[in-house]
Amino acid sequence: QRQQRWDGFQPVQRRLAHVAEVGWQGVNEISFLCIGYLISTRAVVAAASCLISFEYHPSVVRLGGMWAHDRPDIAIIRIEDHEIHPQFNQTTFLHNIALLRLATPVTPTVTMFPGCVWQNVTHTPVELQVPASGRFEPIHPMYRSDCDERYVRPFVNQEQICMVPGVSGPGEYCYAPGGPIVWQKMEDKNLFTEYLVNVYSHGSCNSTNLRIVHRISMYIDWFKEVLG
């Protein structure tokens, strides 16, 4: 079943078993305004900058596919609470990471289950992907020296790196804050294991501009502290 979802039987937005949409409960409806990634049955990683953009705290997450609406195989789960990284800087976007704790654990199914978390702090895969506009787009890390040369300030924090879209030619390639940047490690029989490597922070949509992301491996200890 899992492989069929990657062999053309489902559109991309229905194959994102680890991706969560973060929602705010209104008077008559829920507005899903941020994106996150399920890293355990009780925890979703998101961008702090997105969560604090709204007056109220987020109330629910939706799992089972982006823009899935009322399909029978989705789940809407209440958020128990959330933690913004204590060193998050709203000006520089350093530590643009947040963690959502779910009120009830996710029951893993073929349409929703936690993804793996990349834990290597010294090496990052090169062939990475980010979901955008109903498709997966390639995005690649840059050497820190190249980031320093092109960016307005040096990258002094190990948690933050820059990347560039793996596309050529003009065009706009916009990614949502909190968007998961993943590596799909191919296994036997064309199956793969997906790892969350980075979380998208910010950057303009021009194809040649740098994109700033946060390395998920640098936050493992903080995740453990928050989740107990």
UniProtKB/TrEMBL annotation:
It comes from the Eukaryota. It holds the Pfam family Trypsin. GO terms for biological process: proteolysis. InterPro entries: CLIP_Serine_Protease (IPR051333), Peptidase_S1_PA (IPR009003), Peptidase_S1_PA_chymotrypsin (IPR043504), Trypsin_dom (IPR001254). SUPFAM superfamilies: Trypsin-like serine proteases (SSF50494). One of its GO terms (molecular function) is serine-type endopeptidase activity. Keywords: Hydrolase, Protease. Residues 24-228 form the Peptidase S1 domain. SMART domains: Tryp_SPc. Belongs to the peptidase S1 family. CLIP subfamily. This is Putative trypsin-like serine protease.
